């Protein structure tokens, strides 16, 4: 596992690196102290996951995340920041981050974030999930619908039948969680962009949600992971009939 740490404070990076090595002995740590260096490392060093500070000398706030995701859309990025405001967390999710870890978090939270993201899931602190849910109109109704599944609890990734999805919808969801825009997902799946947009629309309807951000919050809240996908998965779209599907609330 190769972990890229993008933070301009050398002492903080060194401490974080020691902690990650303690949690994951086989981890290889890459360091960058500017956004430019981070983007270059993301493009050339093939990291498996990136931890990104939002306050960098050459890229402040969410601009840093946007630039990194533009350079490597499918690369999992977890924001590591002292800013714990719900508005900032939500903005990072909109910019396709796969997780958010406040710098005040415990080592256990860092471990959980790495495990979740590398398993095709999303990590958000509980306080952020609660705050983000308050801004989702459909969340209360979804929780009260009686259709919610138990959290994953670190078990195997959820498959398409368990989520009530077709194989193509499931694949779209997995790429969407990873942070790819619809055009990049279409390229990965060998489909037209309009087709992928229809799949995304179906997913939002299926989960009774309206936006990708709400979908990410729901997955983080329920601990749903989707595993990893190869860059080319030509699996056909089977079982396209929506009749009898189970909905996850």
UniProtKB/TrEMBL annotation:
Species this protein is from: Caballeronia arvi
Protein name per its UniProtKB record: Two component LuxR family transcriptional regulator
Chain coiled-coil ranges: none
Keywords (A to Z) from UniProt: DNA-binding, Phosphoprotein
Start and end residues of each Response regulatory domain: 2-118
Sequence ranges of Basic and acidic residues compositional bias: 235-249
Positions of post-translational 4-aspartylphosphate modification: 53
Biological process, per Gene Ontology: phosphorelay signal transduction system; regulation of DNA-templated transcription
Occurrences of domain HTH luxR-type (ranges): 157-223
Record-linked SUPFAM superfamilies: C-terminal effector domain of the bipartite response regulators (SSF46894), CheY-like (SSF52172)
Region (Disordered): 141-161, 227-249
GO terms for MF: DNA binding
PROSITE patterns registered for this protein in UniProt: HTH_LUXR_2 (PS50043), RESPONSE_REGULATORY (PS50110)
């Amino acid at each position: 596992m190769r972990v890229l740490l993008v933070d301009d404070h050398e002492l903080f990076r060194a401490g974080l690196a020691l902690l990650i090595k303690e949690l994951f002995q086989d981890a290889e740590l890459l360091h960058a102290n500017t956004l430019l260096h981070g983007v270059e490392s993301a493009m050339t060093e093939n990291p498996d996951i990136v931890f990104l500070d939002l306050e960098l000398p050459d890229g402040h706030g969410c601009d840093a995340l946007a630039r990194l995701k533009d350079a490597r859309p499918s690369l999992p990025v977890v924001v590591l920041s002292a800013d714990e405001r719900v508005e900032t967390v939500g903005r990072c999710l909109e910019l396709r981050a796969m997780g958010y870890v406040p710098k005040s978090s415990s080592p256990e939270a860092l471990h959980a974030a790495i495990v979740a993201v590398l398993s095709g899931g999303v990590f958000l602190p509980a306080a952020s999930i609660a705050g983000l849910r308050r801004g989702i109109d459909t969340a209360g109704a979804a929780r009260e619908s009686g259709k919610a599944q138990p959290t994953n609890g670190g078990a195997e990734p959820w498959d398409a039948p368990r989520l009530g999805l077709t194989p193509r919808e499931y694949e779209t969801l997995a790429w969407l969680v990873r942070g790819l825009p619809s055009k990049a997902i279409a390229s990965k799946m060998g489909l037209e962009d309009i087709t992928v947009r229809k799949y995304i629309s179906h997913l939002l309807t299926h989960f009774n949600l309206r936006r990708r951000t709400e979908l990410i919050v729901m997955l983080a809240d329920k601990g749903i992971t989707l595993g990893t996908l190869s860059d080319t998965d030509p699996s056909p779209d089977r079982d396209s009939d929506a009749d009898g599907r189970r909905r996850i609330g």
